[in-house]
Amino acid sequence: MADLYEEALRVLSIEANWLEATGKLVEQTFARSVEILAGTEGKIVICGMGKSGHVGRKIAATMTSTGSPAYFLHPSEGIHGDLGILQKNDVALVLSKSGETEEIALLLPCFMRLKIPIVAITGSDDSLLSRAADVILPLPDMKEACPYDLAPTASTTSMMALGDALAMALLKIRDFSFDDFAQVHPGGILGRKLLTRVSDLMVSDSLPETDESVPLAEAIAMMTGHRGVCFSTDDDGKLSGIFVYGDLGRLMKNRTNVLDLTLEDVLVREPATCFKEELATIAVSRMEELGITCLVVIDHDRVPVGILYLHDALQAGVK
User: Fold this and answer.
1) CA distance 283 to 296
2) Is CATH 3.40.50.12370 the classification given to domain 2-176?
3) Using an 8 Å Cβ cutoff, are 97 and 138 in contact?
4) DSSP 3-state assignment of 150?
């Protein structure tokens, strides 16, 4: 088994070396590549055959989800009718380690005829692809992680990393925001994290609000009916303190006559709070970090408008 782990380290080391070398090689042409891709008034058409094609599909998906509309065009299907997807205002990102892939070579005249700029990720600076390209993102002239130097391994890792780098640079240049990201990821766990606000989950009816002068026994009765929490407000209606079951437990551990107290005697004066406009996932993180199970939701004048319970958020799938 140790030999198998050694093989893993060998592969990871080779691929890490490829990534380091790739970073140095693209220094002169990366910014220009991003400018060309960002300058399109259409879409980014991505092409690649075999393993490069699989990488191309992933790059297209990443770009599309981060604000740069992209489409994967399979070269074989392209030369058999799918070239109709191309428009004159598109740009092309073409992946080919050799730069001589037959299906890619047949596509190049079509790109050139439509005056579609070509950004090439290739390992050859003297190939059909590199000669047709407007700008080249070169790959290192190094051996693959495959012991026979045949199966695309480290080269496709570098292609994938370059695709991620291009997508993130485009995100930055387009000023694609957190909210923009949320709008294109409405489904599943990611959607819940990005779209669910505190206002969607908070309880806003019959809040456990009371005057801080009430006897502690009365406050405890209120807490019992409101999941172990109550809070007080001042004369202006602003939050002045909170008291929860956890506080009661700590109080009873140190005192025997707790019912002689008023709520004012035991309030936590600077409780953790949140705003209803906040992302629920951020509020949940705050509760988990502080080891608490609820937050008073306040407006920007510190007037309570609701309570967010950790249990409700987790039940809604917000983590």
Assistant:
1) 11
2) no
3) no
4) coil
User: How deeply is 259 buried, as exposed, middle or buried, from its count of CB atoms within 10 A (0-12, 13-18, 19+)?
Assistant: exposed
Count of Cβ atoms closer than 10 Å to residue 252 Cβ: 10
pLDDT, tens digit, 9 for 90 and up, residues 181-218: 666 655 555 556 667 889 999 999 999 999 999 999 99
Buried-state track 95-133, b at ≥16 Cβ within 10 A, e below 16 = bbbebebebbbebbeebeeeebbbbbbbbbeebbbbebb
Phi, psi of 230 (to 5 degrees): -150, 160
The number of CA neighbours under 13 Å toward the Cβ of 295 is 30
Cα gap 286→288, rounded to integer Å: 6
Q: Do domains 2-176 and 198-315 have the same CATH topology?
A: no
d(CA 258, CA 271): 21
Task: Give me the residue label for tokens 């996932």.
Answer: 281
Give the residues across from 275 on adjacent strands. Answer: 298
Q: Which of 139, 165, 138 is nearest to 63 (CA)?
A: 165
CA distance linking residue 133 with residue 28, whole number of Å: 15
What are the pLDDT digits (tens) for 80-109?
767 788 888 999 999 999 999 999 999 999
Superfamily for the 198-315 domain: CBS-domain (3.10.580.10)
Report DSSP letters for 8-66, one per residue: HHHHHHHHHHHHHHHHHHTTTTHHHHHHHHHT-SS-EEEEE-HHHHHHHHHHHHHHHHT
Can you give the residue ranges of every domain in the chain?
Answer: 2-176, 198-315
> Per-residue pLDDT for 134 more than 80?
yes
